[in-house]
Automatic annotation (TrEMBL):
It is found in: Secreted. Residues 99-258 form the NodB homology domain. Pfam families: Polysacc_deac_1. It comes from Paenibacillus marchantiophytorum. It comes from the Bacteria. Keywords: Signal. Its main location: secreted. InterPro entries: Glyco_hydro/deAcase_b/a-brl, NODB_dom, Polysacch_Deacetylase. This is NodB homology domain-containing protein.
């Protein structure tokens, strides 16, 4: 009898803990669903440039550091997205994976194909390259066959201006030429549609935004520090520019705090 009572008491004691646990889970689900329906979606967009060895150059990240960052994303179960899925998640057309991230590269350095691609392949991660077609084939930059290799590996190749100009210093006509020509080259060489644009030097003005809209672009990426959110204009998505002098801890911090 005593044994029986002890069991009853033990069972009764477990009930509130169980109920609390179920409530936490239910609340978590409800919260996630609510966030998806009405809340703001936030996704970190990492912005890389060159992956190579050039100490002191903020835009050249050592391949070992890049490999360490990608290994961290894999170990922490991050999901690097394609550009299309990134857009669908932000538009709330697709449920967000638990830890979404968009990996972007600017300018089109040859080491993107030679150093970054093999590392991303190891993890099966897609990426987005914002390419200035005017630089293709120049020393240090990708060739068209390399661009095709990246595209075939699942990278989204998107325009970044023909000659990487300071757009606000140009006339509206010159801006339109830079923007639409860079897209035309990419679409022609790859036979795929391109609908995103990254502003060279992160610089743009009202003319730039109007040109993108009128030309049927869907997304624009800045170098404004911060996460991309569903509350931002589709033409002004923030990014986290990865700097070679930042410590691994700093990089992790920027990635984990919106
Ligand atoms: Zn650039």
């Amino acid at each position: 009898m005593r044994e029986y009572r002890r069991r009853i008491i033990a069972f009764v004691r477990i009930i509130p803990v169980t109920i609390a646990g179920l409530l936490v889970i239910a609340f978590g689900w409800a919260h996630a669903a609510e966030e998806l329906k009405h809340g703001i979606i936030r996704i970190p967009v990492l912005n890389y440039h060159s992956i190579g060895v050039e100490p002191g150059n903020t835009y050249v990240l050592h391949p070992d550091d890049f490999a360490r960052q990608m290994a961290y994303l894999a170990a922490q179960h991050y999901t690097p997205l394609t550009l299309a899925d990134f857009a669908r998640v932000l538009a709330k057309e697709l449920p967000s994976p638990q830890k979404p991230v968009l990996l972007t590269f600017d300018d089109g350095y040859a080491d993107n194909a030679e150093a970054a691609l093999p590392i991303l392949r190891q993890h099966g991660f897609p990426a987005t390259l914002f390419l200035s077609p005017g630089a293709v084939g120049q020393p240090g930059y990708v060739s068209w066959p390399q661009v095709q290799e990246l595209s075939a590996a699942g990278w989204d190749i998107e325009p970044h201006g023909m000659t990487h100009p300071h757009l606000p210093q140009l006339t509206k006509k010159q801006q339109r030429e830079e923007i639409t020509e860079s897209r035309r080259w990419i679409e022609q060489k790859l036979g795929k549609r391109a609908a995103a644009f990254a502003y060279p030097y992160g610089e743009y003005n009202a003319d730039t935004l109007k040109i993108l809209r009128d030309a049927g672009f869907q997304w624009g990426f800045t170098t404004q520090e911060g996460w991309a959110t569903s509350a931002q204009s589709p033409y002004e998505r923030s990014r986290l520019v990865v700097r070679s002098e930042d410590s691994f801890e700093t990089w992790k911090q920027r990635l984990s705090v919106p």
